[in-house]
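Here is the promised in-class demo. Please do not try to memorize the tokens; focus on the logic of going from shape to residues.
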């Protein structure tokens, strides 16, 4: 949401205490009784959970959850790395597969395998030898399109990366900066997976020549530049294609006012990249017991089934149900691009540097 996000700012957390991003967390030393009963979650700004679900965990565990939101997923990960010796909290949620190696290489997390980890679908598992991170959710980064625009212009919406560089779609796409945004980076990695080490740069040259617009982050791209979103309509946006998520169309239905009977946006399924988000116990967490209890909670079926309509992501635990709105308006991509985390680790920084030089200069 992120995963990326995370991914969307349609819903906000209910009943959570949200702090500004500054200083170390109140749980830092864990010396007082109040601190020992508080567990602090550090996350990107798309974290959300239902009030009743969180309250049930707090009652059952005896811990009060404090949430520190720290901007976009990329910003949050970088901030956590910079403060790792004096962490802002106990658990970090929201590092995804595009940035996972950066967190692990910087020793951001300590080892802990939460209860219920054996129920995580095998395809989402990572770091199985040391258990420093735990998969929590998954989603697909995809190009979304404004159905009304393409209908009015009697133009078929794009279905693939190759379509996006065609003259018919000139000056229609907005994407996020790959160096500052999780979905922007995911879109870059998707093109690298599609066209390979020797072809992705040539593809981006064509995309740039075809008028792609780059903005800093998802919220600006989706809510200010994309004509198909509710926010974009208010902002009189003029770009009918945006890099977002496969779960964005159901969000437009659920939060529509009035609620539409069909999603006003669609997904170009041939442009999707699979994102997985992880959480972990921070290396110098002040409240390790509380952090472990919170990680256990994130894998419960109750939380996993609560996530979709709060953070617009899919659960990773076997048997967790997905709401009807997701299956109807935002099904997962059937054949998304994926990439081995080791390949991402080996190439990400060089790819982003090359992308920046190629696209932004």
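The designed amino acids, position by position:
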């Amino acid at each position: 949401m992120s995963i990326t996000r995370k991914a969307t700012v349609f819903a906000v957390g209910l009943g959570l205490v949200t702090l500004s991003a500054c200083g170390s967390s109140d749980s830092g030393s864990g010396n007082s009784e109040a601190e020992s009963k508080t567990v602090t979650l550090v996350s990107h700004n798309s974290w959300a959970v239902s009030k009743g679900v969180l309250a049930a965990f707090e009652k059952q565990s005896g811990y009060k959850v404090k949430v520190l939101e720290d901007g976009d997923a990329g910003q949050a990960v970088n901030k956590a790395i910079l403060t790792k010796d004096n962490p802002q909290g106990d658990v970090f949620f929201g590092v995804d597969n595009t940035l996972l190696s950066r967190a692990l290489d910087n020793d951001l997390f300590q080892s802990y395998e939460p209860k219920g980890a054996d129920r995580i679908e095998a395809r989402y598992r990572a770091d199985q030898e040391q258990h420093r991170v735990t998969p929590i959710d998954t989603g697909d980064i995809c190009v979304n399109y404004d159905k009304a625009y393409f209908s009015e212009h009697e133009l078929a919406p794009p279905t693939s990366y190759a379509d996006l560089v065609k003259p018919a779609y000139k000056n229609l796409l907005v994407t996020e900066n790959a160096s500052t945004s999780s979905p922007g980076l995911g879109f870059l990695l998707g093109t690298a997976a599609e066209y390979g080490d020797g072809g992705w740069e040539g593809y981006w040259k064509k995309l740039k020549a075809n008028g792609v617009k780059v903005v800093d982050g998802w919220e600006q791209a989706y809510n200010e530049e994309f004509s198909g979103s509710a926010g974009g309509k208010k902002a009189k946006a003029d770009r009918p294609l945006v890099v977002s998520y496969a779960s964005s169309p159901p969000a437009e239905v659920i939060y529509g006012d009035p609620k539409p009977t069909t999603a006003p946006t669609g997904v170009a399924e041939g442009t999707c990249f699979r994102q997985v988000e992880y959480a972990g116990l921070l290396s110098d967490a002040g409240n390790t017991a509380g952090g472990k209890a919170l990680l256990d909670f994130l894998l419960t079926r109750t939380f996993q089934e609560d996530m979709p309509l709060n953070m617009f992501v899919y659960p990773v635990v076997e048997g967790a149900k997905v709401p009807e709105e997701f299956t109807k308006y935002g099904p997962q991509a059937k054949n998304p691009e994926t990439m081995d985390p080791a390949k991402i680790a080996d190439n990400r920084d060089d790819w982003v540097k090359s992308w920046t030089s190629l696209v932004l200069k």
